[in-house]
Amino acid sequence: MHAALPQGEQETGAVDTSASQPRDLRRIDIHPDHWYPLAWSREVKRGHAHGVRFAGDPIVLVRTDSGKVFALEDRCAHRQVPLSAGVVDGESIRCCYHGWTYDCTGRCTDIPYLGRERLPNGVRAYPCREEAGLVFVFTGDPLRADTARFPSLDSATDAAYKTRRFGQEVKCHYTFMHENLMDMNHQFLHRRQMGSMRARSLGRRRGEDWIEVDYTFAREAGKQPIGEALVFGQKRGAKPDETQKDVMTVRTEYPYQTLRIRTKDEAMVMDLWIAYVPLDAEQRTNRTFGLLSIRRPKIPILLDAAWPLLVWFTERIFKEDRWIVEREQEAHDRQGADHNHEVFPVINELRALLMEHGVPHRAAGAHDVDARRVHRIVPVQEVPAS
Amino acid sequence: MHAALPQGEQETGAVDTSASQPRDLRRIDIHPDHWYPLAWSREVKRGHAHGVRFAGDPIVLVRTDSGKVFALEDRCAHRQVPLSAGVVDGESIRCCYHGWTYDCTGRCTDIPYLGRERLPNGVRAYPCREEAGLVFVFTGDPLRADTARFPSLDSATDAAYKTRRFGQEVKCHYTFMHENLMDMNHQFLHRRQMGSMRARSLGRRRGEDWIEVDYTFAREAGKQPIGEALVFGQKRGAKPDETQKDVMTVRTEYPYQTLRIRTKDEAMVMDLWIAYVPLDAEQRTNRTFGLLSIRRPKIPILLDAAWPLLVWFTERIFKEDRWIVEREQEAHDRQGADHNHEVFPVINELRALLMEHGVPHRAAGAHDVDARRVHRIVPVQEVPAS
Amino acid sequence: MHAALPQGEQETGAVDTSASQPRDLRRIDIHPDHWYPLAWSREVKRGHAHGVRFAGDPIVLVRTDSGKVFALEDRCAHRQVPLSAGVVDGESIRCCYHGWTYDCTGRCTDIPYLGRERLPNGVRAYPCREEAGLVFVFTGDPLRADTARFPSLDSATDAAYKTRRFGQEVKCHYTFMHENLMDMNHQFLHRRQMGSMRARSLGRRRGEDWIEVDYTFAREAGKQPIGEALVFGQKRGAKPDETQKDVMTVRTEYPYQTLRIRTKDEAMVMDLWIAYVPLDAEQRTNRTFGLLSIRRPKIPILLDAAWPLLVWFTERIFKEDRWIVEREQEAHDRQGADHNHEVFPVINELRALLMEHGVPHRAAGAHDVDARRVHRIVPVQEVPAS
Fold first, then answer.
1. What domains lie within chain B, and their CATH numbers?
2. Is CB count within 10 Å lower at the N or C end of chain C?
3. Burial of B8 (0-12, 13-18, 19+ CB in 10 A)
4. What average pLDDT does chain C have?
5. Mean pLDDT throughout A342-371?
6. DSSP helix/strand/coil, A134
7. Is the Cβ pair A188, C368 closer than 8 Å?
8. Using CA atoms, how far apart are residues B11 and A118, in angstroms rounded to an integer?
9. pLDDT for residue C175 is more than 70
10. What pLDDT, on a 0 to 100 scale, did the predictor assign at position B75?
11. What is the dihedral of CA A112, A115, A119, A123, to 10 degrees?
């Protein structure tokens, strides 16, 4: 396998390797002022509570008897036990221990043995929305929820595409995930699934909170695997360079990432949207939520028939990527610092972007104290369950 | 389920919620100057040694060939390996590694390859007593052992009662256990076992090292479960308020706890004695030793016949309580401080009592150094095994 | 069981017990400037890479397509993932992620997408040798590799002996291993396998980097187990003191250890060579590599026939030793310091020797930074695989 950078990038790349990095990218927390998917809609069942985590903060997602979803801190104000172990009562959630009751704004509305006239403070509520089968929560300052950009998930709700929902917990910092997907020179990792492929970077573009890079691919040896043909399009009898007519664009639009493949006639044949949600306070584990949309062919049933194979293929690729980023995290843990030695300019720019848009790692427990002191009543956007 | 506080307590309760707590109750160690049960008698077999822990300190309980029990530090003075892996030799314990031998005072009496005329210091001995099927050890300053109050375990040795011995390791600070048992407003937790019950606090009393509170109960909906009837007494055709005639008294008499139920004619139908022994130095895990004594009915065989059901019922209740206090501990670990927001005056007084009678958390390893430097020869109270 | 020290030693021993130890032996790292076995030759298969650890440093052993073995830091200079997950390509190792390629000196010779004219620094190479079925690595300053003494493994390659290769991970500091083997007064530990044995120390000798002690043994009760007869020689109808004619010499020649048994006619009937390799940075786990050579009897097939029994016997002994040294380590972890109270002069001298020839425990991660900053091209001693 041999891939190549455009000539100019090679030079820049070689110069970049000695750049000093004053801060450790793996100690930059993801910025909380965004809408993050915290669960699949199907995980939050009607009349039940579901506990999740964002960067160490426990959050309970409650689907009420009417089907609405709201999000609170996952702790009772009384003895701090998780509300997710509680009981949904109409449009409220009741703590399982002494029965304290909270509405969708986090207000405590009943303490059975105390009477309703004197009630203590409640718990923090989070803005919450459901889209495309995902429950999104605005995890930062709730006053910024309305003006924050909500991600576009058009392909996942467009009947012209068939969408696979996938993802798992990955034991690494979210930034490793961004770097892994954006650096297509790592095809060597997938040699067993993809054969010998050559990636060529066509150039990159950068905006204030995004960066994107275009690639073409050429097969160097062997036949195209059938799984890959399903995702990237089949190339019967293609000449060596013909696959280069398809362009893959990988884009980080903070904090999300997309990977799109367009054919020479500009049709988008594949659209992957993916988000990496830190689970623990150290942000050393993330839960990945992916929407992989494949354009339906003229005879739609062909895609349906091939779907199990596509699932198998993408799982294999994802498993290899998960394995390697977890090894990167292990190396960082052992070395105690970021010793990456990057030579690819795209990745160095991506790292700068992730650094700029994140926040320095907070001290352990700092969030919790803030959340406890301030009980903000926030508007809850209630969306019926799909 | 709706329960109520007496009018006065409600008001006090609401005021109490803003009380500042300068110290964290979960960083108050249990006071060592008491008699603690460290094992059931049946666990310490004749001619064998049995290793236990108290607040991180390893202790070996040795039952000699004659049936006496003594307690030493569970380490050989030589290479620090546990004496509990050793061999009982008459009235002594011999280390399994090089055969150093100790008597019941902790004195080293033989080093096989050194001769008996020059022997090194030994290990610390602990005062030790057996009562009611429990092996008690005085874990603090041995000079205070004789004057320290030994708990009254009368019901457990009274033929008028049938006693169940139970307990398990619970992964929480011992103080959560006291609060759990004393706050009977947590009936909601046991709704699956007990149905909908209403607890009413009749008032509390407090002494220098004890606090107790009386409750009555009324069923709000459903039938009395048979398991509960066995413990609290059966109420055939009872009118709604009739159950209130029975009074439950929960008492913390530092460091033990009791729960007693008396009928309207003042007969004690149930007597629970319970102790929570911290196992680790951080006191984040306790082993619970409980003696649950039920007064035998006029036809005693009825209680024996129903015993398996009573065991099943109490295990279910205990399992729910263990689950919730472990969630409380998890929340404390995550929050790094005690954020309880107590509104029930009884519990706030209990917390004050536990704070006053405990000791500030010692630095890790502090005990060990003390124990090693001082070899106190202490009188050992030897009691034949039951 | 009763063993005895020679008269003079007893007195010295008793005096020694109050000796103050300013430093903690369990915080003395093994000295890296030696040849350590890091793998069995059979573990490093032709055309494959094999990851090992030395004191927390990951090292990859690569056996090339031609059968040579070399050793590098087990990380790619690019993204720090383990080279041991890579692909052997001729005489080089290629990283599994982006295909960066390294030769046996640690130099990066190819980055597929960057071109070969501008290549970054590589990784550290370690001097490497194969002997007697073991892969040895010089883990310290490579300039000292040529002058460092390589251990003598004569019996393991001498046809007059049959050699067993054994060893396992043991969760303790390497120093506990030395003390365990050298103090033969611990026969009590093996009472189930060996019966009641009496060890007598005949005296000790000490050089600059070695110490050795001679023992004889006498059976105090019971019959000689057959497993022991295989190792120590059979004594049919032996009189009580006849076994004393065989002399066991235990020697620590830093950092290795040997145990040899010679009969009264000075023939060496058993030769054990053993090394303890710290795996983690804290040096709390070691991997033991042992070569146990037994002199073949006049009818060699007798030894082959008895071999399974010998394996079983030595495994049982080793299992008991592993169990006890892990308890010693646990006690040290709990006590936070070395509270050993040694009375046997041989062991006190051994401890002094291990203290003098080791190095103070390095701060975590210190090695890694050094290794990364300096890329030393070192001569690699390539030895064909056996």
1. 7-24+152-360 (3.90.380.10), 33-149+366-373 (2.102.10.10)
2. C
3. exposed
4. 86
5. 80
6. strand
7. no
8. 8
9. yes
10. 98
11. 20
Q: What's the rounded Cα separation, in Å, for the pair B18 and B11?
A: 13
Helix (H) or strand (E) segment spanning residue C99: none
> Residue B283: is its pLDDT beyond 60?
yes
A188 contacts C56? CB cut-off 8 A: no
Rounded to the nearest 10 degrees, the angle between the axes of helix C301-335 and helix C174-182 is 120
| Matching residue, tokens 């610390």 | B124
Q: What is the ipTM of this complex?
A: 0.85
Q: Does A344 touch chain C (CB under 8 A)?
A: yes
Tokens standing for residue C149: 């003494």
Rama region for B56: left / alpha / beta (φ>0; ψ in -120 to 50; rest): left
> C336, B368 in Cβ contact below 8 A?
yes
- Per residue, the 3-state secondary structure of A261-298, as one string, reads EECCCCCEEEEEEEEEEECCCCCCCEEEEEEEEEECCC
How do residues B214-226 score in pLDDT, each as one tens digit?
999 888 766 676 6
* Whether the predicted pLDDT of C96 surpasses 50: yes
State whether residue B5 sits within 8 Å of chain A by CB. Answer: yes
What is the percent of chain B where pLDDT is above 70?
81
- Residue C20, CB half-sphere, CA atoms under 13 Å: how many? 1
Q: What is the dihedral of CA A150, A152, A156, A161, to 10 degrees?
A: 170
Across B85-167, the runs of DSSP E, i.e. the strands, are 87-89, 92-94, 101-102, 108-110, 125-126, 128-131, 134-138, 161-166
- Where do the DSSP E strands lie in C154-285? 161-166, 169-170, 196-206, 210-221, 247-253, 256-262, 268-278
> CB neighbours (10 Å) of residue A167?
18
Residue A34 in contact with residue A142, Cβ under 8 Å?
Answer: no
Distance CA A135, CA A246 (A): 33
Cβ within 8 Å, pair A112-B17: no
More confident residue, C103 or C116: C103
pLDDT one-digit tens code per residue, C266-276: 789 999 999 99
Residues in chain A: 386
Structure tokens at B84: 């509990």
Task: Measure A81 CA to nearest chain B CA, in Å.
Answer: 5
Task: Write out chain C residues lying below 8 Å of A327, CB-based.
Answer: 81-82, 85
Q: CB-hemisphere CA count at 13 Å for A33?
A: 10
The torsion defined by the Cα of B351, B354, B359 and B361, in degrees rounded to 10, comes to: -50
Would you call B178 an interface residue with chain A, using a CB distance cutoff of 8 Å?
A: no
Tokens representing C99 are 């295909």
User: Mean pLDDT across chain A, nearest whole number?
Assistant: 86
Helix axes A174-182, A301-335, angle to 10 degrees: 120
Residue from the list B98, B113, B368 with its beta carbon closest to the beta carbon of C335: B368
SS3 C374: coil
Contact C96 A336 (CB under 8 A): no
The arithmetic mean of pLDDT across residues A263-287, rounded, is 94
Residue type, B288: T
CB proximity A51 to B under 8 Å:
no
